[in-house]
Amino acid sequence: MATKPLLKTLDIVYIGMFVALITICAYISIPTVVPFTMQTFGIFATVAILGQKRGTLAMLVYLLLGAVGAPVFAGFKGGVAVLFGPTGGYLLGYLLATILSGLLIKRFGRKFLIMFFAMTLGLLVCYAFGTAWFIYLYTKNGSDIGIVAALSSCVFPFVIPDLLKISLAVALGKQLRPLLPNDIT
After folding, report:
1. CA distance 133 to 127
2. What does the chain look like in DSSP terms, one character per residue?
3. Between the chain's N and C termini, which has fewer beta carbons within 10 Å?
């Protein structure tokens, strides 16, 4: 009896293409404490186009590539040290954002406002996880940083640009998703 493969070849190709998209978007960067990148766009475009399962797998592959040292993160960085550094919480938070927003879209539908709201909730989870990790590292290293200072450095400057990137990702997803084969979920 033949078993159905977990992923088809076409699924793997799409996942690889979107890992490349996320990587390219991470390279488009303005360095700051937490760099301004187009990474948020790449991640949410991946979810909007590939869906929850394949979008999450693409994000996981991206993080694993970075963890083993491939220079896929902002600033052409890679390695476990980046994941355990000040911005690592945001990188891992992207995985949580992908899972949450993908599940919400799968559950509630693909209308623009639903997708925008789902991705915004995912982004809030990413902000929370990343900021908590940022504060933890600073206090662990003997520095004193409060929640307002951390949010001022790591979240507030990114809110408007990230919402614009989510809007762009949703709009692109609405246009490109119907062009994929019907069995892509």
Report:
1. 10
2. -PPPPSS-HHHHHHHHHHHHHHHHHHHSEE-SSS-EESHHHHHHHHHHHH-HHHHHHHHHHHHHHHHTT-S-BGGGB-SHHHHTSTTHHHHHHHHHHHHHHHHHHHHH---HHHHHHHHHHHHHHHHHHHHHHHHHHHHHTT----HHHHHHHHTGGGHHHHHHHHHHHHHHHHHHGGGS-TT--
3. N
Which residue(s) pair with 77 in the sheet? 73
Specify the pLDDT at position 43: 97
Residues 6+ apart with CB under 8 A from 4: none
Q: Is the pTM higher than 0.70?
A: yes
Report the chain's C-alpha Rg in angstroms: 17
Q: Are 127 and 88 in contact (CB under 8 A)?
A: no
